[in-house]
Amino acid sequence: MWFRRDLRVIDNTALLQAAKHSPQGLIGIFIITPQTWVAHHRAPCQIAFLLKNLQDLSKTLADYNIPLLIRTVPRYDGCAKLLLNIMKEQQCNTLYFNKEYEYDEQQRDNKIIDTLFQLNFFIKAYDDQTIVPPGAIVSKTLQPYQIFTPFKSRWLQYLSVKQNYLAAGKPKIQFKLSLAADLVPSHVKEFNNQFNLSAWPIGTKAAVKRLRQFVKKKVKHYAKHRDFPALSATSELSPYLTLGILSLRQCVTELLKQTSQGTLEGLLTYAGARTWLNELVWREFYKHLIYYFPWVCKKQAFKKETDQLPWSYNQRLFITWCRGQTGYPLVDAAMRCLNQTGWLSNRLRMLVAMFLAKNLLLDWRLGEAYFMEHLLDGDFAANNGGWQWAASTGTDAVPYFRIFNPITQSKKFDPQGKFIRQYCPELAYLDNKKIHQPFRYVKVKELGYPEPIVNLARSRELVVRYFNKLRQINKL
């Protein structure tokens, strides 16, 4: 059983099947590929989180008599030879794994399948990252959905028929092998592991506990409170979903337990549950998109014509954005929060992404990579989809003329400046009016805070003009 981004025992499709069909014992393996991880902009905090959860997974698998091997090859292209050698050494006849949908991962898996198949090994691959497998739902014209709302409607319709959205159980205990599990390394040398993970409990049990607490205490207020960063009203489950420590099915199952009818239809009558389910479906939507439109995995915009826009690569502006020194307090507080904690709520991600792409006119791919390099929950599909949404280069993206105003957003979602004060302490003593745009009221440099690096109105006018010109050229 090859573990990838499915670091759990409960509700693991490939593991359940492997355990069911392995009467002579089952071996688990995880492959560390540091050079590929670096090329894919994996965040050091995520690698540290991954290793801690691998340690927990190894202990849990031991209870089922499944030893977990940890092996390292520099890049994906070394996985086929490694797996082949292990299967020969341990006299295994079948490789089980859950599918991944990014382009590089599919290329890796295709090579492995070809290599093993030619030598008469069996391969069993399963859809597990999503509740509805990519390819399972298409439009009436047999085309993949490119707009979220009809995708969601068809997604719900599919589940109402298939009824396959409930989490499965645990695998059966296996025949005990003499093979010992490998020690999980404490770090990967290419990644700095000096990151405080105290806010993120390790393991599936901890993730399930967090899920249940969210559903019981927070989800009913989620629709109203999720955009207010000082309230900590979001689930904060995305790091667990990204690494498969928790499954989407587990999330839906737990939501259903809290509704009176215990059905999807009943769940949709609750505003908070409906809104959170909507966010889970967005995750699936972006997985389906990378499956059907693999060029987005190759640093290309979904709307390829938007690459004609005069994107900037100004290093001074980019570094200023990265460091949270733009002169707009909510943007700066958000970026400092990202740099310090490895996490941001969705509202803040949208805000800083739109600021980079539409106010600074920087290439959205710069921000996309920076997020991946710093997010604990960095997931290519969700991150790429979110950035292309904000930059209006993706499918079903925000209209190009819709641009979040960071001052308006600040007044609306952090009215008392609590979040700003937490991450911009140099502004802590300003009152609730001045803190949203201090440059209007005080000499900010005397506070150790920068002047705004861009004029919001002028930058908005400029980016709209560029998009309008692009529409005329391409007759969109």
List the helices and strands and how they pair.
Layout: E1 2-3, H1 13-20, E2 28-32, H2 34-39, H3 44-62, E3 68-72, H4 79-89, E4 94-98, H5 103-118, E5 122-126, H6 148-162, H7 204-218, H8 222-225, H9 238-242, H10 248-257, H11 264-267, H12 271-292, H13 315-323, H14 329-341, H15 346-359, H16 364-374, H17 380-390, H18 406-413, H19 418-423, H20 456-474
Parallel strand pairs: 1-2, 2-3, 4-5
Helix pairs in contact: 4-5, 6-12, 7-10, 12-17, 14-15, 16-17
Give a quick precis of the structure.
This protein has 476 residues and is mainly α.
| SSE succession | EHEHHEHEHEHHHHHHHHHHHHHHH
**C-alpha-based Rg, rounded:** 23 Å
Question: Which whole number gives the mean pLDDT?
Answer: 95
Q: How many distinct helices?
A: 20
CA-based shape: globular
| CATH level 1 name of the largest domain | Mainly Alpha
Low-confidence blocks of residues: none
CATH architecture identity of the largest domain:
Orthogonal Bundle
- Count of domain modules: 3
As a percent range, the share of strand residues is under 5%
Number of strands: 5
Q: In terms of quaternary structure, what is this?
A: single chain
Largest sheet at a glance?
A: 3 strands, parallel
CATH overall fold name of the largest domain: DNA Cyclobutane Dipyrimidine Photolyase, subunit A, domain 3
Would you identify the CATH H-level superfamily of the largest domain? DNA Cyclobutane Dipyrimidine Photolyase, subunit A, domain 3
Which class best fits the helix and strand makeup?
mainly alpha
Distance between the termini: 48 Å
Approximately how much helix is present in the residues? Answer: 40-55%
What is the strand arrangement across the widest sheet?
Answer: 1-2-3
